[in-house]
C-alpha cells in the first residue's frame, strides 16, 4: 500500500516519443513502456507512473476526432484508478485536441496535463525531459489530499496554461505556446508556483464526471482577408451539410460592410448554420457593435466569440453541435464560459 499519487501517462505520438540512434543518426519511436528505465530521473518523483501508448503513434498532423475520443476514453476508463493524467501528443495540434478534451469532460476533478516537446526525448539538448518531468509533478501536486489542478492544462517550457486558451506560436523555439488572453496557471522555476486564484474549481464537488463524445466535425474556418471574393465566400457557405463556421474577422470583430457579404452570412444563419465571430488577432476580444463594421454582424445574429481562440472555437463548435441544441441555446452556450475558455 502506498499513498503516492498514481499517474497515467498516455502516449499518442509526436516528436517527444522519438529517440536518436546515434550510430545511424535516425530518429525512431521510443518504447514508452520502458520509460522508467530510459529516464531514471522519473523514479525520483513522488508518484507511481503507469503508461499506455497508442499501438501506432501518430504525428499530430494526423490527429482527428476519432483520436480525441480514443484519448478521452482512456482517461474515462482509468479515471477512478488514477489521480492524474499526462497526455503526450505532438505539439502541432496540441491546442486543438486538448481544448476538445476540456469540453468532453464536465465536472473534471483531476488533472489532465498535455505536453510534448520540440526535440525528441533522446536528443542531448532535448526539452522533452523538463516538460515531461514537470507535467508529471503538476499532475501529482496535491493540497489537503486534493489535486491542485482540476482541469485540462497544457505544460510547455516552464509554464502551465489552461489548454483551451493556448495557441502554438513557434515552430522552432522551446517556448512554443502562448496563452494571450489568460495568464499561466502555474510557473516552474526554483519552485513550482501555482496561481491558485486562476484555477478552475468544480461548481459542485458532489457531481460525477460526465463524459460526452458526440463530436460533429462539419465545421469550417473562414479567414477574412482584404479582397476576398463573393465566389470564395459563396463556395464556403454552400459546403454540403455544413453546420458551423468559425469566422476569423479583423481586430475587434470587424468585417466588410458590402451587401453581398452580409446577405450571404444572413442567409446562411437563416439556413441553420451557426456562425461564430472570432478575431484574427492573437490577443484581445471581439466587441460586437464597437465599430459600424460589426454592428450588422450583430443584427443578423452572429455568435460573439469574445476572446476565444480559433482552436478552441472549433473544438467548442464540434462539442456543442453534438448536443442537439436549438439555435438560441447554441448561441447562449457558445457565448458562456463552459470550461474557462472565454471571458
Ligand atoms: N510534427 C510533430 C507533431 O506535432 C511536432 C511535435 O511533436 O512537436 O506531431
3D architecture notes:
The protein is an alpha/beta fold. The protein is 27% helix and 22% strand. It is globular. The protein binds aspartic acid. The site of aspartic acid has 11 residues, from loops.
List its salient traits.
9 helices, binds aspartic acid, 4-stranded parallel beta sheet, 343 residues, Rossmann fold
Q: Let me know the number of strands.
A: 20
Sketch the topology as an H/E string, one letter per element.
EEEHEHEHEEHEEEEEEEEEEHEHEHEHH
Backbone CA Rg: 21 Å
Overall mean pLDDT: 94
Measured distance between first and last alpha carbons: 44 Å
Helix content: 25-40%
Small ligands present: aspartic acid
CATH level-3 fold name of the largest domain: Rossmann fold
Outline of this structure?
The active site is at 15, 15 (o-isoaspartyl threonine intermediate). By secondary structure, the protein is of the alpha/beta class.
Chain-wise SSE layout:
Blueprint: E1 6-11, E2 18-21, E3 26-29, H1 35-38, E4 48-53, H2 65-78, E5 84-88, H3 94-104, E6 105-106, E7 112-115, H4 128-140, E8 142-143, E9 146-147, E10 152-156, E11 159-162, E12 167-168, E13 177-178, E14 186-188, E15 192-194, E16 210-211, E17 219-223, H5 230-237, E18 244-249, H6 259-270, E19 274-279, H7 292-299, E20 303-304, H8 310-321, H9 327-335
Parallel strand pairs: 1-4, 1-5, 5-7, 7-10, 17-18, 18-19, 19-20
Antiparallel strand pairs: 2-3, 6-16, 8-9, 10-11, 11-14, 12-13, 14-15
The chain binds aspartic acid.
Amino acid at each position: 500500500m502506498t499513498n503516492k499519487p498514481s499517474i497515467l501517462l498516455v502516449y499518442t505520438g509526436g516528436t517527444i516519443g522519438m529517440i536518436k540512434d546515434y550510430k545511424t543518426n535516425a530518429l525512431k519511436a521510443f518504447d514508452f513502456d520502458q520509460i522508467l528505465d530510459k529516464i531514471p530521473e522519473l523514479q525520483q518523483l513522488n508518484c507511481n507512473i503507469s503508461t499506455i501508448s497508442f499501438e501506432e503513434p501518430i504525428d499530430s498532423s494526423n490527429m482527428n476526432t476519432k483520436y480525441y475520443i480514443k484519448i478521452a476514453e482512456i482517461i474515462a476508463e482509468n479515471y477512478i484508478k488514477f489521480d492524474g493524467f499526462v497526455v503526450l501528443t505532438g505539439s502541432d495540434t496540441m491546442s486543438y485536441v486538448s481544448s476538445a478534451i476540456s469540453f468532453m469532460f464536465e465536472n473534471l476533478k483531476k488533472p489532465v496535463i498535455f505536453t510534448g516537446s520540440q526535440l525528441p526525448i533522446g536528443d542531448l539538448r532535448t526539452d522533452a525531459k523538463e516538460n515531461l518531468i514537470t507535467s508529471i509533478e503538476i499532475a501529482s501536486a496535491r493540497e489537503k489530499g486534493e489535486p491542485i489542478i482540476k482541469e485540462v492544462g497544457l505544460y510547455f517550457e516552464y509554464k502551465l496554461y489552461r489548454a483551451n486558451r493556448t495557441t502554438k506560436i513557434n515552430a522552432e523555439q522551446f517556448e512554443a505556446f502562448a496563452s494571450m488572453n489568460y495568464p499561466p496557471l502555474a510557473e516552474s522555476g526554483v519552485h513550482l508556483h501555482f496561481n491558485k486564484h486562476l484555477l478552475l474549481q468544480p461548481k459542485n464537488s458532489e457531481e460525477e464526471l460526465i463524459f460526452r463524445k458526440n463530436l460533429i466535425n462539419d465545421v469550417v474556418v473562414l479567414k477574412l482577408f482584404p479582397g476576398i471574393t463573393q465566389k470564395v465566400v459563396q463556395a464556403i457557405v454552400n459546403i454540403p451539410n455544413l453546420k458551423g463556421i468559425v469566422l476569423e474577422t479583423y481586430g475587434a470583430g470587424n468585417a466588410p460592410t458590402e451587401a453581398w457579404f452580409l446577405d450571404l452570412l444572413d442567409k446562411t444563419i437563416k439556413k441553420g448554420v451557426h456562425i461564430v465571430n472570432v478575431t484574427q488577432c492573437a490577443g484581445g476580444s471581439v466587441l460586437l457593435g464597437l465599430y459600424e463594421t460589426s454592428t450588422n454582424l450583430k443584427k443578423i445574429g452572429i455568435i460573439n466569440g469574445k476572446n476565444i481562440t480559433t482552436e478552441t472555437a472549433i473544438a467548442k463548435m464540434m462539442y456543442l453541435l453534438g448536443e442537439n441544441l436549438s439555435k438560441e441555446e447554441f448561441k447562449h452556450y457558445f457565448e458562456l464560459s463552459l470550461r474557462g475558455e472565454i471571458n
